Amino acid sequence: MKRKRITQLFPFLLPIRRTQKKLFFYAKMYFDRNRYAKAKAPEFLPFCIYETKSKLLNENTGFDMKYQENKVFNLHLASEPVNGILIRPGEIFSFWQRVSYAEKNERYKDGLCVVNGELVTVPGGGLCHLSNFLFWMFLHTPLTIVERHPHQVKDFPSPDEDEPDGVDATVNEGWLDLKVKNNTDLTFQIEISINEPYIYGRIFVDQAKGHRYEIINREKSFFKKDGKTFERVSVCRQKIDIKSEQVVSENLLYTDVCEIGYQLPEETAVAEEMS
């Protein structure tokens, strides 16, 4: 049996633990000698290398839709300190280093969040929608992923059916961050905007390049283990020449394994796997 954490045994200690973790979390970033992306520019850089959008509301959660509406409110707050940020050569973009400023004028509303393995409502819930969105954008650039944490459980189907699986990035202030480092000689810039029913994103650079990236799945399958259903999927990135539209290279980025917390369609093939 998995040993329970102290905060699971004594939930009243969780606020104290959170405060402690946040102090150490930001102190570590302050003293780690990394250069974090903090500057914005009045205008966007000249070349857009990727743009995308994502549906804001998910009707498959099983919760009151007001929490989805609250999520949209939270995303408006969180996207403001990210929108327009420059990631210069040698700099690291940290989700929490930017988003920690989001509540300076207004407070977050209650949204959905996984706490101690359960989907519950908490202030600021739903920010993973933004971290997922940013991670998806970063995968379409040569930026290096420094820190990324997958969701352990997929609680409901994605509203974006065409989006590849296994490309999420959960965040938890004080514990889990999303970080990318610019190891190139380019300067990148993020644009985030919200115009319901979508959140929109674009990545700009200061120099034109002759290729683009696409993210695809390989070897997707489902299996059972210890009475639970899991999804295993390989996430690959293709480098494509813009002029010829030919695939120049394809690399396996990682293999993602995630528990499925909802009912799969009856026709889905699910293999049995030994514990």
From TrEMBL:
What is the top-level taxon of the source organism? Bacteria
Xref: Pfam families: VanW
The record's PANTHER family line, in alphabetical order, gives: EXPORTED PROTEIN (PTHR35788:SF1), EXPORTED PROTEIN-RELATED (PTHR35788)
This chain belongs to the protein called Vancomycin B-type resistance protein VanW
The species this protein belongs to is Oxobacter pfennigii
Gene that this polypeptide is encoded by: vanW_1
